[in-house]
Amino acid sequence: MPEVTLPGDLRTQSHLHPAGSFDLADHPVPTGREEVWRFTPLRRVEAILNATAITDGTGLQVTVGAAPDLIGPPLQAGQAPRGTALTPSDRVAALAHAAARHPLYIRIPEGRAVADPVRIDLHGIAPEELTAYHLVIAAGAHSAATVVLHHTGAAQCLGNVEAVVGDGAKLSVVTLQDWDATAVHLGQHEAKVGRDAEYRHIAVSLGGDLIRLQNNVSYAGVGGSAELFGVYFVDGGQHIEHRIFVDHNNPKGKSLVDYRGALQGKGARSVWIGDVLIRPEAEGIETYESNKNLVLTDGCRADAVPNLEIETGEIVGAGHSASTGRFDDEQLFYLRSRGIDEAEARRLVVRGFFAQLVGRIGLADVEDALMTTIDRELAAATPERTHA
Amino acid sequence: MTTTEKGLVISDLHVDVETEAGPKSILKGVNLAIRPGEIHAIMGPNGSGKSTMAYSLAGHPKYTITSGSVTLDGTELTTLSVDQRAKAGLFLAMQYPVEVPGVSVANFLRTAKTAIDGQAPNLRTWVKQVNAALGRLDLDDEFSSRSVNEGFSGGEKKRNEIVQLELLNPKYAILDETDSGLDIDALRIVSEGVNRYAAQGDRGVLLITHYTRILRYIQPDFVHVFVDGHVVEEGGRELADELEENGYEKYVKALV
Questions:
Q1: pLDDT interval class at A14 (50, 70, 90)
Q2: Distance from the A215 Cα atom to the nearest Cα atom in chain B, whole angstroms
Q3: Domains in chain B: ranges and CATH
Q4: B interface test, pick of A294, A334, A358, A386 with most B CB neighbours within 10 Å
Q5: Cβ–Cβ gap B115/A342 under 8 Å
Q6: What ipTM is given for this predicted complex?
């Protein structure tokens, strides 16, 4: 077999991960038969995939809550750290890259622990236009920070988020998709995790008509850790798709992926793709990925596709699991036998299903805010008491 | 049927369980009356239908009541939903309490108390009450932040059932093999909890057990021997002593 040299360390030979490229020409308009597009209803994103006019963030009202010295100047394409973590994996990310010429830039100085989360509110104000944003987060070595993105309003939005996590840094990125029901949001999040750094990414997708996020992680050094958590609540007609790719390209790294979703209503559809690649050089790594779906009514569909590609056996552990199920009758009986009516019992079970995951985030403010959001979603989604 | 008759009164109760081969008859005409202030023990061999009776009284969907009635202080239970039966005053301490991941004991207890009382308990006194109840069952305050029954030892699960019994304080409590799987210390702690509940004087207890050892701690007023889906003998606590001596053999043999 001839030796193939692939340019760029993000390139992989896997059919699941076509090599990334900044050049739109490398990402032809998909037909729907491509592995990375076959779960997405292309009909609903056709106009976006063929778009020629994409505004540079003008469809969003952006408010950044952060100390002024944490906000850097806009980065041109090719101006580091822009482009050092994220290479577009698909056409959508390449479109966003081309259109977002003035990225937001958050930089956490080396050694600095930022107590309050950096808060970036992105509120859709012009749903008729297709708009793109790009966020670059550079967490200096041994820094600690949390960045919360809160998407609200109505928009057709392409969003790329790239995080460069310095050696020994702790960075949490929370992305909350709390859009109006008409919103469409696609994009790519990608992190490069430094030596002994701890990266957390928490995706919460509740609102919107269609959400498709590609979430990639690779490692810039030995011993980095990535925890990718996701919570989604899919209502009738909604399409919510989370695609994860963890590239173990360095030794002794860790990755833990846990996504949980609840679906209800006719045509509610979730897609979870969890790809983990363990390269020959990734000795001593440990990875586990899990997706659990709770189907609350008839007429929903949850696709879960975990993939592990293992190119070295010299690892601590690698595993995955995926499950899709309905309410456990025994749990409901137990709760109801204590006087709790059926609707409330269902709410408790779903809340607990999410709380189990949220409780692992380890950031009290974020956990509280998330549970409040989930409670609101549950109160709105499940029927009120049916009898006294 | 609505009467003002006090008690948990089971009349000619017939219950089927759904199986792959179709419905199977488990309870074949149970008659039993538990009056306020009484402790009844139901004893019987494995497979006699004791647990089926407990679950069907509580309204488990797996069991179908085909005929007969169950009234609680005059209210017919068999037409009520599971939660309505609990609100009417019935409590079942389960043999295998169910794990509810992500739902804390504190949240569960508060939600149940709110449902039973029809209003939320006073927050400050409630937390004290909960901690005191946990303490009486030899569980520390931190227990309330754990997920319901998840990762609990067998003894913790049973003690958690008795914590609920004390806090929800139902009119009638069915304890389904609460003694099974308990070591001697846990058995004593659990029994003391049941005795505190019964000592109120106006509550009814139906204690389902396979073994007599719990009856050393809890004194029953009545003992019923349960075989093949119905009560075959009734007596006072001396009947339990006789069962301890001779087992269920003569009752089971009588069937053949």
A1: low
A2: 26
A3: 8-254 (3.40.50.300)
A4: A334
A5: no
A6: 0.96
